[in-house]
Amino acid sequence: MLTDFGRILIFFILGALFTGAGLVTAWIIRPSRPYAEKLSTYECGEEPVGESWVKFNIRFYVIALIFLLFEVEVVFLFPWAMVFKSYGVFAFVEMLVFLGILVVGYAYVWVKGDLEWDKPVPKTSQYVDKVGVVQYEALKENITA
Questions:
Q1: Distance in angstroms (rounded) separating the CA atoms of residues 98 and 23
Q2: Residue 99 contacts residue 70 (beta carbons within 8 Å)
Q3: 0.70 exceeded by pTM
Q4: 3-state secondary structure at position 131
Q5: Cβ proximity of 114 and 59 under 8 Å
Q6: Are 52 and 41 in contact (CB under 8 A)?
């Protein structure tokens, strides 16, 4: 007599065996004819240039995450629009609060500058720049002297 957990265990074991058998069969059957173009990194039809371990701006991830956040939140507007009449003023006020929170979040992200591809360089006063140049020149003179 098999319990429910035993059936689940057998299901997982059979799933692992089936997957493993498929991978081993594919490994045995498939042809192996490697060549340089086949082994190169694919970059949307372009010839790969340089190393594959290139550092790029983390801002792409930030913008993608912000987009996903607002996209998912906007999806909640569609079901609300379908049942709006049945709930009346209460649903309208709730959606205004929800949209208000979204607008505040959007304004925060905009003011913070996270929607810009290139983050603006912080501005320094001319006094700080001149002092920095004077200190650099004095340091350079001491090193060469």
A1: 48
A2: no
A3: no
A4: helix
A5: yes
A6: yes
CA distance 94 to 18: 50
For residues 43-58, give the mean pLDDT: 69
Residues 11-29: what's their mean pLDDT? 96
State residue 78 phi and psi, 5-degree precision: -65, -50
Beta carbons of 58 and 117 less than 8 angstroms apart? no
Task: Determine the Cα–Cα distance for residues 42 and 48; give it in Å rounded to an integer.
Answer: 7
What percentage of the chain exceeds 90 in pLDDT?
Answer: 20
User: Residue 77: left if φ>0, alpha if ψ -120 to 50, beta else—which one?
Assistant: alpha
Whether the CB-CB separation of 114 and 58 falls below 8 Å is answered with no
Domains of the chain: 4-144 (1.20.58.1610)
In this prediction, residues 96-112 reach a mean pLDDT of 89
